[in-house]
Write a structure and sequence with these properties.
The structure is a homodimer. Chain A has 4 helices and 8 strands. Chain A is of the alpha+beta class. In chain A, a hairpin with a 2-residue loop joins strand 3 and strand 4.
């Protein structure tokens, strides 16, 4: 985000994001890059069979320990066809959530910094896995997703190409797209 | 998993996993690899600012559409230091959940197939991100995690080296470890 684009005339908030605070953060980081060093953490406990529970309580960032408003719990399960009791989304579905959640937040924040108003974002995504990799049936088959496709429908006057470019600052997109093809389509209405 | 290792004397369940069903699945896939083709899906709606909601209702696998027992919802947020209202774990924390949930389930299932009893698994993990990448302050800084470290404490008579190897059949580990160094330590008690 280019803080030089900031002017006194920009709105204080855009897309529900405090733009003044955002540019303030960017300026602070430029003066002290250590502020940008974050360490996210989680703990997990196996609950038996296909079920396990992750808890997130805090992280390190902006030069100090940070505590979330409340602990966040995430329960992983597996559906019956994968021999589970379906008590929660499975880990590869949680990966899709991480990806689309990150693309959405990233698009919204970067658009706010450029004063591009967004009224709505609705997305769908899907990923293909051949479970012969996971099961160890074939060494030639990769264990994880081989491809993920994302469609984002954005209610905005912004250009689809620009919005797509902004979304791809996403940290989770960075991770997943280094590992496999992630096709992101952005359509505006 | 090696179905040839199956014997009539193996227990019907191990680690809460139906081992007969597991070997049945493996045999079925060997005869018809199309059974192993899965397509996982999610939808997401932006809720304003830092908040968005993913819903997972079903997927395709084992040659048919599959519906979860109930829809699973996952709400992403951001903490105040990242300009959010902290209504949910943030996407990079959800990525840690996907990773440790998948490593845990994978270890437990593969151990069950080898009749390695596991009594407990407790894990912690952390990942390092320099937010200058996400913010577009520096092109030389990667946007996502640069490293993730995982510690799994397993109550089992299995060998830590074998349990670690089994965990690494994990589909989410496959994705993340193709993108960045993921150091997995397994300790048994």
């Amino acid at each position: 985000m280019n803080a030089n684009a900031a002017t006194q005339s920009r709105p204080a908030t855009c897309n529900g994001v405090d733009v003044d605070a955002l540019f303030g953060t960017i300026q602070a980081i430029k003066q002290d890059p250590a502020i940008a060093e974050f360490r996210f953490r989680a703990t997990n406990r196996w609950l038996g069979g296909d079920s396990n529970l992750t808890t997130v309580t805090g992280f390190y960032g902006a030069r100090q320990e940070q505590v979330h408003a409340r602990p966040f719990e995430m329960e992983c399960g597996e559906p019956p066809v994968l021999l589970g009791r379906d008590a929660g989304a499975n880990p590869v579905e949680f990966l899709l959530n991480a990806l689309i959640g990150c693309l959405t937040t990233t698009m919204v924040f970067h658009a706010a910094a450029r004063n591009i108003a967004i009224e709505a974002v609705d997305s769908e995504l899907e990923g293909d896995i051949d479970l012969r990799g996971f099961l160890g049936i074939s060494r030639d088959v990769r264990k994880g997703y081989r491809e993920v496709r994302v469609k984002m429908r954005v209610k905005s006057k912004g250009s689809p190409a620009v919005l797509r470019e902004l979304a791809q600052y996403s940290p989770v997109f960075d991770v997943v797209s280094r590992a496999l093809p992630v096709n992101v389509e952005v359509e505006t209405t």
